[in-house]
Amino acid sequence: MSYMALYRKWRPVTFGEVKGQDHIVQTLQNQIISQRIGHAYLFCGTRGTGKTSIAKIFARAVNCEHPQNGSPCNQCPSCQGILSGSSLNVVEIDAASNNGVENIREIREQVQYPPTEGKYRVYIIDEVHMLSTGAFNALLKTLEEPPSYVIFILATTEANRIPITVLSRCQRYDFKRISIPTLVGRLKELTGAEGIQVEEKALTYIARAADGSMRDALSLLDQCVAFHYGKLLTYENVLDVLGAVDTSVFGKIFRAVAEKDTRGCIYQLEELVMQGRELGQFVNDFIWYLRNLLLLATTDDAENLLDMSEDNIRLMKEEAGLQDPETLMRYIRVFSELSNQIRYGSQKRVLVELAFIKLTKPAMEHNFDSILQRIQDIEDRLEDGSFALPAAAAAGGMQAGAGISPPDAGQNAGRNPGQGGGQGAVPGAAPAVYSPGDVQPPRQVELPPGQLEDLNAIRNEWGKIIREVGGSVRSSFRNTVVEPDGESCLCVVFTSPEAYAIGNRPTALGEIERHVEAAFGKKIYFKARLAGAGERFDTIYVSKKELEEKIHMDIQEEDF
Q1: Does 475 have pLDDT greater than 60?
Q2: 244 and 209 in contact (C-beta within 8 Å)?
Q3: Can you tell me the distance from the alpha carbon of 317 to that of 357, in angstroms, rounded to the nearest whole number?
Q4: DSSP one-letter string for 75-125
Q5: Is 556 exposed, middle or buried (0-12, 13-18, 19+ CB in 10 A)?
Q6: What's the pLDDT tens digit per position in 125-170?
């Protein structure tokens, strides 16, 4: 007897054998039990999720002489005839090769004759979205008012291509992708029944590679078993057959990317190519790996979302901390674009190498994502002291006195003025720098205690705040000064019109407000303004008590 592929041999023949589509199975069983059977059904979903299998089970169930809880008995003459393909009550049509008007006209002629045996004539039209416009129009009238003994089951992977006039005449059922645990459970059943020895880790990888398709999972298993027939099917065997890459390699590559080690990335890719790994599969798996890192970096309980060991999760948490979430999202976008290109590319290796160069050399790109990463790289180098201006340039900048110091300076100038902080030392503002022609000392302004407390608290942490908010806030709010603007309100002063255009948006200010409320437990509102030409930023804000102590006299307020 010739060999039959696993996905054909183990096709479900009862509703109870269908996996992962419980919501659809239960509904159809209830319809059969209660005899509330519709005349037209539309099964939508990705490949290999059970659309055709359920359609065939349903066709047997409605004609079964002894149905069992809504499922066919598969023993009566009607069920046996449909299973063997000899029954005229069930007609399967492949719309991909029978998509013309004449094919639909044949169906319209056939439905005029009732079944010679059984209750219903069932027409299963697979890939129905391939029908021509004329064929859909020819089907409409029959689909809307078919004879009482006719049932249409339309199956498609692209429901968006079906005319709305057809959709409105059908009961629609959306088939879900089958989960990895469900796939693994079914694969365990089949390998046990077939006497195949296999590691559970190997089955888990096959299930993940199947991308929610039971048919794909069985086909991949069939392929791997054939290559290692009669032996224990291990995880490494599966990787070899499918041309896939072990997850530990992804960690090495990601660390090389995080360190901007282009040479290391290319070297790792060279090893994968020499091992015969399939680059398209590598790109898809690396996207999934980056997705897991992003979940660990942004979600509190990501461990419950990831199906992996505690050791792997601990290692991936360390790797997730090497880059911020915005950079991880850029990596995913670059490789998602690569996934679309590599499908039709003739030079796949060159495309993958180009993607790694984009990740490690953002200066070579000129899109918004790469510019943000370049700005962040500069900020990181400024913070750790690995980037410094030449002495001459720094001196020239000090002489000119132009610009405002970065907000990070606020953490070093956090002392109150007049307490050893130096002349004009204000948290979050630039040190006062005077040219020889300056004669006016810094202006001192008294603030109520509550406003002064809020101002100092925010100024002392201003650099940390904008770093933690990240994104466009981190890049546009760097050279800014925080000023008081009334009770529970602060104003952010920008010197760059470009930065002001970004920072003045309600969404940006709202992010700052939400972060401050979460970090300090205070509801502080923020405004923004653009600094005027020649405006000084050396104002010293003090409390009434500090001002009295400084001038050694009481201050009397007079009404004018």
Answers
A1: yes
A2: yes
A3: 25
A4: -SHHHHHHHHT--SSEEEEETTT--SHHHHHHHHHHTTS--SSSS-EEEEE
A5: exposed
A6: 998 998 888 888 888 888 888 888 999 999 998 888 899 999 999 9
What mean pLDDT comes out for the span 252-273? 89
Q: Give me the residues paired with residue 154 across strands.
A: 42, 125
Contact call for residues 472 and 509 (beta carbons, < 8 A): no
Tokens of residue 560, six digits: 């004018």
Residue 250, pLDDT score? 86
What pLDDT, on the 0 to 100 scale, is given for residue 369? 64
Q: Beta partners for 482?
A: 492
Other C-beta atoms within 10 Å of 520: how many? 14
Average pLDDT over residues 537-542: 81
Contact 203, 184 (CB under 8 A): yes
Helix locations, 401-552, DSSP H: 409-412, 449-460, 462-469, 471-476, 497-503, 506-520, 544-551
DSSP symbols for 204-272: HHHHHHTTT-HHHHHHHHHHHHHHTTTS-B-HHHHHHHHT---HHHHHHHHHHHHTT-HHHHHHHHHHH
β-sheet bridge partners, residue 126: 94
User: Do 162 and 127 contact (CB within 8 A), yes or no?
Assistant: no
Other Cβ atoms within 10 Å of 313 Cβ, number: 15
Per-residue pLDDT for 451 more than 60? yes
The closest alpha carbon to 221, from 177, 246, 184, 181, belongs to 184
Averaged pLDDT of the chain: 80
> What are all long-range contacts of 64-68, with beta carbons under 8 Å and residues at least 24 apart?
67/32, 67/33
pLDDT of residue 395: 37
pTM above 0.85, yes or no: no
Cα separation, 155 vs 159, in Å, equals 9
Least confident of 50-64, 197-211, 399-413: 399-413
| C-alpha to C-alpha distance for 75 and 83, rounded to whole angstroms | 10
Q: How far apart are CA 116 and CA 352, in angstroms?
A: 61
Distance (Å, whole) CA 195 – CA 172: 39
